[in-house]
Design brief:
This is DUF2267 domain-containing protein. This protein is an all-alpha fold and 126 residues long. It has seven helices and no strands. Helix 2 packs across helix 4 and helix 3 packs antiparallel against helix 4.
C-alpha cells in the first residue's frame, strides 16, 4: 500500500508517503464507523488498519472539504498539499476496499468524499 501511495502521490521518499498515509488514515478513522470501518480495516495492510482503528470516531461528521481543512490545520500544511495527500492515500484505500465496500463507505460519509476517492459525486434528484 505504501508503494502505491508513493507512486500515486509522486512522493520522493517512503517516509513522505508514510506520513501522508498516517495522517489521512487517522483522519478517516475519526469519521468512519460501524461495519464499514471494520470491513475496511480487514482489507488494509496491518499497519494501515491500525492507524485507521486507533482513532476514536468523532461525534461530528465532516464534509469532504472540511475533512481536508481539518487535516491541514492539524499539521499546519497547505490546503493544496493536504488535498493531494488525501487523494493519494484514498486512491490506495479504494484499491484495497474494492468497489462495493467503497460505495458503502461513501454512503455513510457526508458529501464531498467521493471526489477525494476519485469518484464522481452523485446526488439524487429532488
Amino acid at each position: 500500500m505504501l508503494e502505491k501511495v508513493r507512486y500515486e502521490g509522486a512522493y520522493p521518499t517512503r517516509e513522505k508517503a508514510d506520513e501522508a498515509v498516517r495522517l489521512v488514515l487517522s483522519g478517516l478513522g475519526r469519521q468512519l464507523t460501524g461495519d464499514e470501518r471494520v470491513d475496511l480495516a480487514a482489507r488494509l495492510p496491518w499497519e494501515a488498519a491500525r492507524g485507521l482503528t486507533a482513532q476514536i470516531p468523532d461525534t461530528r461528521q465532516l464534509t469532504g472539504w472540511a475533512f481536508v481543512k481539518d487535516l491541514a490545520a492539524r499539521t499546519n500544511a497547505s490546503l493544496a498539499t493536504t488535498r493531494w495527500d488525501t487523494g493519494s492515500v484514498f486512491a490506495a484505500v479504494a484499491a484495497h476496499a474494492g468497489p462495493d465496500l467503497l460505495t458503502r463507505i461513501l454512503h455513510q460519509l457526508p458529501t464531498g468524499y467521493a471526489l477525494l476517492f476519485g469518484r464522481a459525486e452523485l446526488t439524487q434528484a429532488a
